[in-house]
Amino acid sequence: MKLIEDLNKFLGTNESGCQHELSNYDKIKSISYDVLPKNNPSITLYCKRKQFFVHFDHVTYSEYFLMDCIYEIKKAIKKPKKLLKDIAEIWILTSCYDRDEIRVQTVAWGLRNIWDYGVRNDYIGKTKIMVRKCFNDGYSPIDYLRDQNRHIIIYENFDAAYEAMCGIDNDSYTLQENEASRPDFWIVADVHSLLGN
Hints:
By secondary structure, the protein is of the alpha+beta class. The protein has five helices and ten strands, in the order αβββββββααββαβα. Strands 1-7-4-3-2 form a five-stranded antiparallel beta sheet, covered by helices on one side. The protein has a three-stranded antiparallel beta sheet with strand order 9-8-10, with helices on both faces. α1 runs antiparallel to α2. It starts with a helix and ends with a helix.
């Protein structure tokens, strides 16, 4: 599978399998998909007798492949958090084929902030609105503002998106069950129109 080859090449690793007893390892650093209230997919760096291992837990690479494996790293680790973020970024870029989904995944994994994708009022070009909801149990889904058919709404410019956002803010809002507050909104560039697709 190409993704496994890419990760092995990046890490200089061999798959060690899932049979390792992780309680025998020292946990160095972990990053997780920060959206679900529990059982978030995670990528964790462990150490055992000066050997480093990366553990993928509940990380879905495609609809056919759920990974829960340990890889031995054959190189020195000076910045463990950066290493894990690099691994997560490789996984996102090789498993997400839609540019909008790549944005959602990079925010969910903590690789970027939503506002990193935001545009200012002098931006010229088509826009979309990213939405982050917040629930009392820690669930905080990220998505785009969509129409009734679940298609992402594309606005002609910043002003049109801003007007839509103000309209939402001015309307009454009914919280969903266990929702902590109104959603947060960010106006972002439409990457598809930027790249001509």
